[in-house]
Amino acid sequence: MTATATLTHTAALTRLGYALSDNTRTRVLLTLREAPAYPSDLADALGVSRQVMSNQLACLRGCGLVEAVPDGRRTWYRLADPLLAPALDDLLRLVLVVDPACCSSTDCSCA
């Protein structure tokens, strides 16, 4: 039995694709699949400024992929849905069989 794609499904996959289209956002999602984290820790781990991290987390929140959890005067972030971590793991397994030279960011014949 196959599921029929609805507008809701299409919108959800579009949001995920948009989130994954940016290297920093992808790295944030992959990091959060391991464990929740504070923005400052994410920024340090990924080697980006706290402002960049704030902007990327706001984007990921807007896409519905991460959620902010208040913790006193700080806020930590986690994946918004527990099914997202195994889905990202599945995507990683798919990416490993793709030829990385096929679609480089500077010369993409797929676009």
From TrEMBL:
| One Pfam family cited in the UniProt record for this chain | HTH_5
Q: Which UniProt keywords apply?
A: DNA-binding
The protein's matches in InterPro entries, at most eight in alphabetical order, are given as: ArsR-like_HTH, HTH_ArsR_DNA-bd_dom, HTH_Metal-responsive_Reg, WH-like_DNA-bd_sf, WH_DNA-bd_sf
> What SMART domains is this protein classified in?
HTH_ARSR (SM00418)
Instruction: Tell me the domain of life.
Output: Bacteria
Q: Does the keyword DNA-binding apply?
A: yes
Q: Identify a single GO molecular function assigned to this protein.
A: DNA binding
Record-annotated HTH arsR-type domain positions:
5-99
NCBIfam families per the UniProt record, alphabetical: HTH_metalloreg
Tell me what this protein is called. Answer: DNA-binding transcriptional ArsR family regulator
